[in-house]
Structures are given as C-alpha cells and as structure tokens.
Design brief:
- Helices cover about 30% and strands about 30% of the residues.
- With about 180 residues, the protein is α+β, with helices and mostly antiparallel strands.
- It has a domain at about 60-180.
- The strands form 3 sheets. It has a 4-stranded antiparallel beta sheet with strand order 3-4-5-6, covered by helices on one side. Strands 7-8-9 form a 3-stranded antiparallel beta sheet, covered by helices on one side.
- A hairpin with a 3-residue loop joins β4 (about 100-110) and β5 (about 110-120).
- The radius of gyration is 36 Å and the shape is rod-shaped.
C-alpha cells in the first residue's frame, strides 16, 4: 500500500469585512458616556447663562431706578412732610419741584415701588422694578449736619435672602443738586 502524501496549502487569512459584536458594544458604551458628559456640560452652561442674564437684568433695573431717583431728587427744591393725604416717612417720599409739581415715591407691599408725578390736576403713575418681592424699600431724608451743607435723601433697598442674610443697597442724592 502506498501512502499518499497529502499536501495542505496554507493561505493567509483575508482581512475581515466588519467588526465583532464586542467591539461595536465597546464603542457604543464609550459614545454614550461622551454624549452624557456633553449633555451635562450643555445644561450647566445654559443654567449659568440664565443666571448671568437674570443678574444683568436685575443690575439694569437697579441702575435705572438709581438714575431716576437721583435725577428726581436733584431737580427738587424741597421734600415736604405732607401732600394732601400723603405723609413723608420710611415708605413714602414727597419731592417738590420749582414748577409746582410733585414727585412721590411710594413703597408698596411685595417689592413694588411706585413713582407718581402730580402736576396740577394730572397724575402719572409708574411702577419701578426693584428686583424681587423680598426687597423692602425705605426712604431716609436727613437734614444737613451743618448749616452750609445740603440735605441728603437716600433710597435704601433691603434684600433678605432665604438663608436670612441681609444685603443693603443705598442710593443717595443731594436735594436740589441741579438747582445750585
């Protein structure tokens, strides 16, 4: 009996046409983690942007309020104690202008501040934003310490945060500053 020799040819393996299931799952897991981090960063950036916009809006409101208050006090020649049914106090400020008109600042509940201009028989009202309902508005009209000094009028915003910290913002102006 003759033994035949069998020849086995070795051919190199051809390159694969795809990925294994494990490789695909690893890539999908890594992409899920990357997208999760990206979504978290995007939400954090949006929250920071909203907080920055709210702070800028509050700053703009308070700047507008301070500018209006300073201009009214500077144009006034007196701060009378009474005007009809109104009386000057921590919640009400009455300013008399040289033309006979009056500007009245009245603090309302819930952080509202109203500016009323009375000229003759007409009256215009405008609500000035102060920020949030937890802001208390107070007015202080101090007589001059010395006879040669001018009276100082102050608008004080007292804000109490939920953590019970208190922040005060004061805007002061000299009564009749534009008239001198």
């Amino acid at each position: 009996m003759k033994l035949r020799k069998r020849v086995v040819e070795f051919t190199p393996e051809l390159p694969r046409a795809g990925f294994t299931l494990i490789e695909v799952m690893v890539v999908m897991f890594a992409m899920t983690i990357a997208f999760g981090f990206g979504a978290t960063l995007l939400l954090a950036a949006l929250r920071i942007d909203q907080a920055g916009a709210a702070t800028l809006r509050l700053l703009a409101w308070r700047t507008e309020l301070a500018d209006q208050f300073r201009a009214d006090v500077a144009r006034a020649d007196a701060a009378p104690d009474n005007l009809g049914e109104l009386a000057r106090g921590p919640k009400c400020l009455i300013l008399h202008r040289p033309d006979g008109s009056h500007v009245i600042y009245q603090s309302q509940d819930e952080g509202r501040l109203e500016r009323i201009v009375r000229a003759g028989d007409s009256e215009t009202r405008r609500v000035l934003p102060v920020g949030n309902p937890e802001v208390a508005v107070e007015f202080v009209a101090e007589p001059p310490a010395e006879p040669r000094r001018f009276p100082l009028v102050t608008l004080r915003l007292v804000e109490t945060s939920p953590s019970r910290t208190t922040r005060r913002i004061e805007v002061s102006a000299v009564l009749g500053g534009d008239l001198r």
